[in-house]
Structures are given as C-alpha cells and as structure tokens.
Design a protein that fits this description.
- The structure is a single chain.
- With 473 residues, this protein is α/β, with parallel strands linked by helices.
- The protein is built from nine helices and 18 strands.
- The strands form four sheets. The protein has a ten-stranded mixed beta sheet, with helices on both faces. A four-stranded antiparallel beta sheet has the order 15-16-17-18, with helices on one face.
- A hairpin with a 5-residue loop joins strand 15 and strand 16.
- The chain is globular, with a radius of gyration of 21 Å.
- The model is unreliable at 1-30 (pLDDT under 50).
Length: 473
C-alpha cells in the first residue's frame, strides 16, 4: 500500500504533491521534484541483487528498490543503444521514433558519430526546460555528434559532458571527452567513468537549489571490460582470459580476468550511485528527488563477458541484439521518498516510451500528441487509474532485420524482416513460457495472423531505417 500523500503543492497534481510537513528539503516549496534517470549500458536484469544476483554486489541499486519501487515487467526502447535512447528521450517506440538503429554519420571533425536526432523532435529535456528545470546529460549521448542538430546542447540540455558518439565510448581511457561542444583532452590517462561521475555530482551540487533533470548515462558495464581495481572480485572466479588477437589492435582490449572485471565494473557503478544518493541527502533534496535506474538493453557478450556465468539476463532468453525478452526486458527501479512507498513491487507492463508522459504528468507539462507512451505515475504513487498498453512494438535493423509485438501475454517475433520472402515467425505464450522456449505458432495460426496484422500497422516508413515490404503468414 502506497503513502497517503497530503494535498498538492504548487504545480503538481493532487495525487503526488508534498508539503513542508513531509519534508525539510530546501527546493520543495515550488512543488517540482528533481528528476534523475540513470541509464546503465548493456547491464542485464539479472546482474542486480534486487533481481536475484548472488555474486555481484549492488547494495545502492538494491536500496533504490527497497526504498521505492521495483518493476518486474519493464521494457527498454530497443535492443541496442542509440534507438533505445531515442525512444527514452522522445516517447515514441521504434515504429515511430526518428532513430531506429545504430548508424554512423561523419561530423565536422571528420569522425563518425551516431545519426543525429532531428531538430524537430521534442525531447524530455526540452519539455522540462519549459517548466523551469536546469538540465544535464552526463555520460554517453549517442544521438548526434558535434555541431549538428542532434548535439545534446541543441536538444534541451543546458550541460553535457561525456561521449557524444558510441564508437569512442568502448574505451574507458579515451583521448578526449566532450564538454558543451568542446573537447576535453585526457590523453588516455583518465578512467572516463570516474570523471563522468565527478561531473554528475558537481552538477547536482551546483543546481540543487532549483528543480533539475539529470540524465546520467554511464558506459559501465559495456565492453571494454576495463576497471582500475578488481577489488573483492580479484581471484574469486575461475577465469578464461580474453585476448584481442587482431593485428591492427582494433576491437576490445585483452582482459585476463573478464569475470572479475565485469563484476568490479558493476559494483563500481553501484558505489557511485551510493555517492549520488548521499549527495542528495547532503544537499537537502533527497525526499523530493525521483531517482530512476535502468539499462538501455539486455546484457552484451563482448570483450570476454560470459553472461551465462552470472545469469545476467535471469530467466529471459537472448541478449543484446535479440528481440527475445533477454534483449529488451530490463531492470527498472525508482525511488521518490516523499511519494513512493518503500518496498513496492509493480507488475505493470511499461516501457521506455512511457518516461515522457510520466514526466509531463509529474510536472504539469502538456503531453505531446505523438507519444506512444502511457504515464506510469499511478503505479509510482498508487493513486489514480493506471492505463495499460494495448501492445508493445519493436523493430530492429541489424542481423537481417527483426520485429516483435507483445499483446495480452502473447509475443510474435519476426526474423529476417529485411527479406520478405525469407521472413519467418515465432509465437510465444509469455504467461506460461517467460523464457520463450516453445514456439507455439503452429497451434495458434489465427492469433499469429492477427498479431502480424497489428505489427504491420504499428510503424511509419522511415527512409533511413526501413523494410522493403513485409513477410507473409
């Protein structure tokens, strides 16, 4: 049972306002909560203690769940980075989002960055700025390079520090990072995650007196598997060294202890989340700050990481680049001490494109008409009617193309989507078979055809990421 919240403060819906009697925070008078969205990179749902992990220690993230809410059925925006982040920022699933895949584009400096988000796209940061928020993205952006329309400072963020593009984000000791359009040279001597966290903490320290939105996007635990200190995991596991055998030195760096490195990276991220939460308390803004933690997609198996060893994706089949649940069923925990009852668990089916309307409802902003999302604020507060999705839709443009649709406990997966004459289909009953082990399409042909028809109607054409027709069932 969730808290019986007192009458609304200024600008907030009555169901979620907090009063001075509930909190001594200095920035609660305007009623607008701070919002922090922490997005890990390639972290599996099974890598966290609150979702069953036994070997990797994640007490800070587990505490977010214990002090707030844990979602059991949350889905990412995509099964790879760039489109997932686009979906999160714009509230449109990959059938409608501007970015639907990982694709490079050269910038003014001759380097390739991710395809830029169009200027006409409206981001969560742009909406929050209309409500008086100070906004920052710290970590990996992945939606456009320098001096183009996709640059974060042109997409609603007052401050940016980190990797603009994904390519360089594979190295934790880069030659430079970006800060508000300027290169900060590091000469391969600084562990980037540590600097990213320092910049994030500094942002909170400087802006805690006014409502702020921090989109914190660390690259941990994406490969390279690289960390300054293996800590308690050094020597704990039987290891199979990963060796980069490329003659040109390209690819992921060698790692003699990949299991220990992966565990140490996750725990390092967790350690720094604890530092962030402690700072919120120190600045007097803990009670009225919504902190969300999730991952951009399922776990990777790159640079020597063996996801099966840690059971990184729990019971779910597949991993990054799959549209089985292992590629898109992500961890999602949140705390908002003044509003969310500690220890809440929700089985509400939600997805990244719901973040946009949720933020709009919290802040009193108008929800864009073209969003595919549904606010999960009623699930956070326990107040009001929680609307449900009719379906979730996905498309993916690598590995021959893939699509998937989830509706009423059933999931249709289309493979080889790029070649309609070769496309084939799998149907799973998720209520009975969460691990997607039994393809039951032959037993339910009419249902499969209905889902296929809905799948075909759930996207708009996109010349950058498109299919040449559809397969048949």
């Amino acid at each position: 049972m969730l808290k019986n919240i007192l009458p609304a403060a200024i600008l907030l819906p009555a169901s979620i306002g907090i009063s001075a009697a509930q909190s001594h925070d200095r920035n609660t008078a305007p009623g607008l909560p701070n919002v922090i969205f922490i997005l890990a990179d390639d972290l599996g749902i099974g890598d966290l203690g609150c979702y069953g992990q036994k070997d990797i220690k994640t007490p800070a993230i587990d505490n977010i769940a214990e002090n707030g809410i844990l979602f059991t059925s949350h889905y990412s925006g995509s099964t790879v980075s760039a489109p997932s982040r686009c979906v999160l920022m714009t509230g449109k699933h990959t059938g409608h989002s501007f970015i639907r895949g990982n694709k490079g584009k050269a910038a003014y400096d001759g380097n390739s960055y991710d395809w830029p988000l169009a200027d006409e796209e409206v981001t969560v940061a742009e909406i929050l700025k209309t409500r008086g928020y100070v906004t920052a993205c710290v970590g990996k952006w992945g939606l456009g390079g320098p001096r183009n329309e996709g640059e974060p400072n042109r997409q609603g963020f007052d401050y940016f520090f980190g990797y603009l593009g994904q390519g360089r984000a594979h190295s934790y000791y880069p030659d430079y990072l970006w800060e508000n359009g300027e290169k900060v040279y590091l000469d391969h001597k600084v562990y980037s995650h540590d600097m990213i966290m320092e910049k994030a903490l500094d942002f909170v320290d400087r802006t805690a007196g006014t409502p702020f939105f921090l989109y914190l996007t660390p690259t941990i635990p994406h490969a390279d598997l690289d960390v300054p200190d293996l800590g308690e995991y050094d020597g704990k596991f039987k290891e199979t060294p990963f060796v980069n055998r490329s003659k040109d030195g390209k690819g992921y760096k060698s790692q003699p202890k990949p299991r220990a490195a992966y565990a140490a990276m996750v725990s390092r991220l967790d350690r720094d989340i604890a530092r962030l939460v402690d700072l919120l308390k120190e600045k007097g803004v803990y009670e009225n700050t919504l902190v969300i933690f999730s991952s951009d997609n399922g776990v990777h198996s790159e640079g020597g990481h063996d996801p099966e060893f840690f059971d990184s994706n729990s019971i779910y089949r597949g991993k990054k680049r799959d549209l089985y649940d292992g590629g898109i069923h992500t961890p999602f925990v949140a705390q908002w001490p003044a509003v969310i009852e500690a220890g809440t668990v929700s089985d509400h089916i939600s997805a990244f494109w719901d973040f946009m309307p949720t933020v709009c409802e919290i802040t009193g902003a108008e929800i864009p008409e073209d969003t595919d999302g549904i606010s999960y604020l009623p699930s956070l507060t326990g107040k009001g009617h929680q609307k449900k999705h009719d379906f979730l839709y996905y498309e993916f443009h690598e590995k021959g193309g893939k699509r998937a649709i989830i509706r009423n406990g059933w999931k249709l997966v289309e493979l080889d989507s790029k070649t309609p004459e070769k496309a084939y289909y799998e149907l799973y009953n998720l209520e009975k078979d969460e691990s997607e082990t039994e393809n039951v399409i032959s037993s339910h042909p009419r249902l499969a055809k209905k889902l296929k028809k809905l799948m075909d109607s759930s996207r708009t054409a996109n010349p950058i990421w498109d299919f040449d027709g559809f397969g048949s069932l």
